[in-house]
Amino acid sequence: MNLHRLLRERQAEGRPVTAGLIGAGKFGAMFLAQARLTPGLHVLGIADLDLDRARKSLALAGWPEEQFAAASFDEARRSGTTHLCEDAEALIGACGLEVVIEATGDPAAGIRHALAASANRRHMIMVNVEADALAGPLLARRAAASGCVYSLAYGDQPALICEQVDWARAAGFEVIAAGKGTKYLPAYQASTPATVWDHYGFTEAEVKEGDFNPRMFNSFVDGTKSAIEMAAVCNATGLTPAPGGLGFPPAGVDELADVLRPASEGGALHHRGTVEVISCLKRDGSPIARDLRWGVYVAIEAPGDYARRCFAEYGLATDASGRYTVMYRPYHLIGLELGISVASAALRGEATGAPRDFHADVVAIAKRDLKAGETLDGEGGGTVWGKLMPASDALSLGGLPIGLAHHVSLRNDIPTGDPVRWADVEIDENLEAVRVRREMEAAFADAVSDAAE
Hints:
This protein is an alpha/beta fold. 38% of the residues lie in helices and 17% in strands. Strand 5 (123-126), helix 7 (129-145) and strand 6 form a beta-alpha-beta unit. Helix 2 packs across helix 3, helix 7 packs across helix 17 (432-443) and helix 8 runs parallel beside helix 12.
């Protein structure tokens, strides 16, 4: 509860926390809107391959042009302004930089930038949850070895879920489940960038005016983004996915305590200590009242009769037994809240959620019958979607991580609904992202095997 005070102290000392942003898209723009209003925080530089986009994002976020006109990082540091560049490596290595924010959404780029941040002893805020799901446990281990923080991004749902899990455990509660809400129907698994707008109900004019990214929206619709985010939560908290992946049970907030309990007790959960994503739609497509589409939750159990009575006395919504209840946050502010991670890493040396072990993975699954010779188009595309799996199942299967299922050619036919395996694709084992992923699998293989027994 003291980050604002610590930031103000740094401001008063004339040495604000210095941050560098890689990727000035929607998430980055939201961060920038608040960063310029945060005392004790200086955005030293912004790296983006499209500098015009970066300038538009800054203008949208309310930055005057003179604030990002610095000709170099040295000038930016002296004047308290911001330098724009295309070279992320140069930004990471800039003198005086403390915190790197990786917001590209490209898993290979995220891995490269995280390794560079560790080499330069910079704290890393990994907005790029795709990179975290692919190799986060190893990246966090590298950061720790360099004396730095590797952190999930506060404001994004995985970090907020981790915070709720930590709260529950620190208060002595067993976590039965944790997760988030979304809009989902089983038929969405076949969605493609060409059909995605039908599921959102956007008109062609709205899409044009909004400059929406169909692949990003499609990843949310087909369940891939939910799987990636829940993998990040599992690897950070020790919660484990169901063997069959996410079930997306429909429920409103008033039904959560009934749904988020083990199936053996009438709920929808495979086991205690898992993750699940709640749908805001009934299976017939009709909306659910008081849904949790934009929120996050943690389900807990009263450890005894006294706590159960307290639940009742203080008005908590529970299941019929009075033992299970759910604490939830109905909204998240995405990049508008990201400064919490930056301040926590720089001022307290603490992550707002970070992977510790390899508990969960996201494997590419065929959306349609795929033929040998076809090229996979990865997350949000028309060929594959990502399924959440226990890491032990994914490794035993030899499943291809969704983060590497892009621009790779198939060796074999894959029927609809079947997983794609490493052996099914032509892949360059010398690529950095592939090498790092293979290294992570080897580094955590014994722990994954022990957890499966």
